[in-house]
Structure formats: C-alpha cells, structure tokens
Amino acid sequence: MIGFFLTRVILMVVGYIYPAYECFKSVERTRPVVEQLQFWCQYWMIIAVVTVFERLADTFISWLPLYSEAKLAFVIYLWYPKTKGTTYIYSTFLRPFVAKHELEIDRNLNELTIRAGDTFFLYWQRALAYAQTRFYELLQYLASISRSSRS
Known about the structure:
- By secondary structure, this protein is mostly helical.
- The chain has helices at residues 2-28, 34-61, 67-79, 85-150.
- Helix 1 (2-28) runs parallel beside helix 3 (67-79) and helix 2 crosses helix 4.
- The longest helix has 66 residues, at 85-150.
C-alpha cells in the first residue's frame, strides 16, 4: 500500500510537475526553441491520450501487479532525452492515427461543440424563465403583504 502511494507521488512529480516546469521554461525563453516546444506539445498529447484510456480502462488494468511502476517507467521513457520516447510514440502511433482520422475528428468535435452550445442555450433559457417566474411570484407576494398591512 505504501509502495502504491509512493509510486503515485513520484509519478505526479516525474510525469506532471517536472514536464510542466520544462514546458514552462521552453515557452518563457526569450527565443523559444521550436524543437523543444514541439517535443513538449507531443509529450502532453501522449499524456492526454494515456490519461483518457487509463480512465476508461482503469477497472481492468489497475489491479495488474506493478501497473503503477510500469506507468512510471513509461512516463520516464517519454521525456528521458536518451530514449526519445515521445518522438517515437508520436511519430509511430499518434500522428499517423490522428492524421488518418483528422477530418472525422474535426467533424465530430464541431458537431459536439454545436450540440453543447445548443444544450447550454436551452438550459440557460429555462433557468432565466424559472428565475423570472420566481421573481414575479416574490413581487406578488410582497405586494399582497403590503396591501394586507394597509388594511
């Protein structure tokens, strides 16, 4: 149990805090190096994909022995300069997949954005109508109290 928590803490530091800091340094340079920016963008894309798949498959894979340690090793493999794991994973797997499905992904994201906007607008209208109704009821109540106190 302690090993699990220790691995999680190390994973947070090595997989998120250190790369975020390195990304910050790359972005904030007076003359950013394009290769470094590209590397860290690729790293974060891979981490995003891994995180999504991990959340979806967590029940099936989290019980595997040494799963957390394997994930930690994978994250180190990604950013460690000698392995160039991010470049390999991105150019071998992620880039070809996204390039092949780019139009479909764009279409689905556009449709999702439109639906989300429509849904938000619908609920916003309902909330405003509800608030307006309650406000008028409050005004009517206050007016009735005012009339009854004059009598």
